[in-house]
Amino acid sequence: IATDQSGNSDTVVRTVIVGRTPVANFIVKSETQVGNGRRLTLEDKSSFSPTSWSWVFGPGASPATSQLRNPVVTYTTSGQKCIKLTASNSFGSDDTTICVNIVLDVDEVMLQHNLNIYPNPASNKLIVLLDGTAHEDVTVALYNNIGETVLQPIKKTILNQEEIILDVSALPAGSYFVKVQTPLATAVRQVAILK
């Protein structure tokens, strides 16, 4: 209300909306091994009430993007993965990028087999020794450090104790992962190949 010297008054009403642009933030709430990948559950921790979220997960991710507040993403390749979140509301938007290191298949669950892989390091051949239950199917595969299969997987039925020989003579020197999979369990071991 405003009043002049003559006593005349006038009233003006204005609505002011108070708010601000969100500050984007998130955490990796959980990380689990699933098949040939790592599943991350992400949790939005943005402040100042965002109403929409845009995620970009980068190469090797499924899905590649999401509009969910708390998405789940699975990576099928190893390495540093940079995840970008843009949080928005009616006042604007903000983004943040957090990088995580994904290492595929390093968690080991071996329910029915004792596993030994030798020699490690190897140059010409790797021997995968399995001691398990008779008549159990097993698949043995070799991956490089970015998750690519480098040898044709070998499928075999285990009869108590079995040796599976992997010919690595044609592979370049480096770090690799041997993955042994049965219907009920998966085990992964890192191995080195030297030349």
Structure description:
0% of the residues lie in helices and 57% in strands. It has no helices and 17 strands. The strands form five sheets. Strands 3-4-8-6 form a four-stranded antiparallel sheet, with no helix packed on it. A four-stranded antiparallel sheet has the order 7-5-9-10, with no helix packed on it.
Helix-strand layout with pairing:
Elements: E1 2-3, E2 9-10, E3 26-34, E4 37-44, E5 52-56, E6 61-62, E7 65-66, E8 72-75, E9 79-89, E10 92-102, E11 113-118, E12 125-132, E13 136-144, E14 149-158, E15 161-167, E16 174-181, E17 186-193
Antiparallel strand pairs: 1-2, 3-4, 4-8, 5-7, 5-9, 6-8, 9-10, 11-12, 12-15, 13-14, 13-16, 16-17
How many strand units?
17
Q: What Rg, in angstroms, do the CA atoms define?
A: 28 Å
Shape: rod-shaped
Instruction: Let me know the largest β-sheet.
Output: 4 strands, antiparallel
Strand order of the largest sheet: 3-4-8-6
β-strand percent reads over 45%
* Count of runs of 4 or more consecutive helical residues: 0
Q: Low-confidence parts, pLDDT < 50 over ≥5 residues? A: 105-113
Helix content: under 10%
Structural class: mainly beta
Element string (H = helix, E = strand): EEEEEEEEEEEEEEEEE
Averaged pLDDT, please? 84
Distance between the termini: 88 Å
Brief overview, please?
The chain is mostly beta strands.
